[in-house]
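Hey, I'm writing a tutorial for new members on how sequence and structure tokens pair up, and I'd like a real worked example in the thread rather than a made-up one. If someone can provide the structure for the chain below, I'll link this post from the tutorial.
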Amino acid sequence: MKKDICAYTYEQLQTEIQALGEQRFRAKQIYEWLHVRLAEDFSEMTNLSKELRGRLNEQYEILPVVMLEKQESRLDGTCKFLFRLHDGHVVESVWMRYDYGISVCISSQVGCRMGCRFCASGIGGLERNLSPSEMLGQVYRLQKLMGERISNVVVMGTGEPLDNYDNLLTFLKILSGEHGLHISQRSITVSTCGIVPKMYELAKEHLQITLALSLHGATQEKRKRLMPVANAWELEEVLAACDDYFRETGRRITFEYSLIHGVNDTPEDARELIRILKPRNCHLNLIPVNAVKEYHLKQPDRKNARNFKNHLEKYGINVTLRRELGADIDGACGQLRRSFLHTQTEEADL
């Protein structure tokens, strides 16, 4: 069975190449082809001998991440991509243009087992984890397809990143390492719905990435209604893990809060948010929920969302109301993948 060469860190690749009887500088050349020039085949590595390229092809593989579908918003140019992996599974990624540069949102798992009540990603459950190379492959393909340097990476697509912890760590090290794309850790955000033990582990790594907690409810009862993970850890436990991350890294937490009409956008919800966030050095990101037909949840109108935001600001909460990108395409996490799988099932039944 061939080895997944893009999943090796720079140091691991040096060990591999030396084991082949090659000098260490060959590892640097190969690593640059894989993680800077974004080669998709060993035949592209023209500064290596034909004999070495042949041996690499015999023992290693560059796993393909192939574009199946692209949706582009006519409103703001946001693009959503569906990618096919080597085993036929599909994942989705998003390409977004901001004033500060190009940001991409990638998936960390095929499906998700967290089952949040407003997210299409968890419908159907978890299929499998993505390898480091499959997470990197989404970033690399997006950069090649769009022809622009990516400046920010958000691991907030399908899946719970901390449920794929070891592969996530390797991905982060390769993505931010000086021998690869060298994207600043401060320009990388990892989202979690609140896997408390892994939050403490991640803090001990002392990375400079931003940790984003999917909060979505300001009380334990509200979180349990929306997020099954809240049955495992109390809100106070999750917030304590957030505080620990800030102490260990000096990086303030971002709290993600999907605004759902009549569910978590009331004056009482605002008061509870102020209570738990005011003592903390943090940022609150309000996200008007994308409608997912299976859940029958509604987005608050823009005026009510702005009023909710303004009330929080009045009490000193650092808050933004996320600009809606890709509103005219399958914008919510998991929607494009779910549409594709539904279509495949219908075709198979014909």
